[in-house]
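Worked example

This section walks through a single chain of length 239. The input is the sequence exactly as stored; nothing has been trimmed or padded.
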Amino acid sequence: MDNGYGAYGQVDQEVLVTRHAPLVKKIAYHLVSRLPASVQVDDLIQAGMLGLLDAANQYKATQGASFETYATIRVRGAMLDELRRNDWAPKSVHKRVRDLTSAMNVVEMRTGRDATDREVAEEMGISLEEYHSILLESNTRRMTSFDDINSSEDDNREQFSDEAPEPTERIAEDQFRSGLAAAIDSLPEREKLIIALYYDEELNLKEIGMILEVSESRVSQLMSQAHARLRVRMREHTQ
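Given that input, the structure is written out below as tokens.
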């Protein structure tokens, strides 16, 4: 039986790429289910195939991990890199998101508790409808930046790196993760549940809406609000 390796354990790159091409589609469809409708699955598949080719070229059987594990990381990484390069959110969206985060910080510093939708809207001098619109824009921007989704990928890539991180870098990473865990735990219960369902259970917005019995757009708003709170509470780790 052909196991994908040539003589002396060398990897047969063509066999590996052909055999694992379905893996690229599987990963692409999994990611696109969690993204705005404007993201085309064919673009993800194209980027993923390039990642698969790169994985086949770079893989060494002596690395310990299976090729499928290695390829999964490289394929997902290639898709995420492609999405980052094509962040289509206009500058006005980025500014409104910064303004929203700053207003939320002002309210929470003043009141000592979680800011409500209406309080943040009043601080920004806009209507509640405009505030909710910015939350939806913020969610699209966040989901295309992939800072959150990619954190687990970075952890997995480390096992294939030839260079160990500096001790100070490892301490900083550990402190960031601890701070993030505490920040998530401090969220209002509904927002914390949405974060858990999205990232831990890997449900999409529509599925979360069915569980909470709210619309998909409302889930999107609450998720954006949760990320705004996290940005406020994680400032000391990101400055």
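What to look for: The chain has two domains: 7-85, 91-238.
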